[in-house]
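Review form for a predicted model. The reviewer records the input and the model, then writes brief findings.
Reviewer: anonymous (R2)
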Amino acid sequence: MPVARALGRDSGERGPGELDGGQDDGGLRAIGQAARECGVSVRALRYYQEMGLIMPSRHTSGGNRLYADSDLARVRRIRELQQLLGFNLDEIRGILTIEDQLAAYRSDYHASVDESDRVRIGDSALEAYAELRREVERKIGRLTAFRDEIDSRVERILLRREQAEDGAVTAER
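Model under review:
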């Protein structure tokens, strides 16, 4: 539901203290402040926007980006998916798309009073969670293969080391 409609204004008029888009400007931050709070560079924020991962909540009349708390939470989620789970930005875009859809399902579910609609929405959410799980399983599979490759190399080095030590002991006798 558009913010203006949620506020009871379908005409597009702005209330006191509102910027283009209908949200009060109280919690909005300029791009530099937003970047500092999230621990990323201004360039990274611009790149995330270019990739379609985030959109600033508002722009000033001069075109400067303004970020709300929800925008910063999304940037933190992107960083978490990158750093903790090792997803690249293309993978993150897919994950965020699914997470956005799940948020819409939650909203639709709570807004619905029709049980058959709620069942349909629940089924859709289950499909979305299954896709998220498949993505995580693919990542785990790649990480497991990488770990196994490291283990194999370590085993070969240890075997060669043992053989070299055995050869050195035999040569001393």
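Findings: The CA atoms of residues 48 and 124 lie 28 Å apart.
Further findings: Residues 1-84 form a domain with the Multidrug-efflux Transporter Regulator; Chain: A; Domain 2 fold (CATH 1.10.1660.10).
Recommendation: see findings above.
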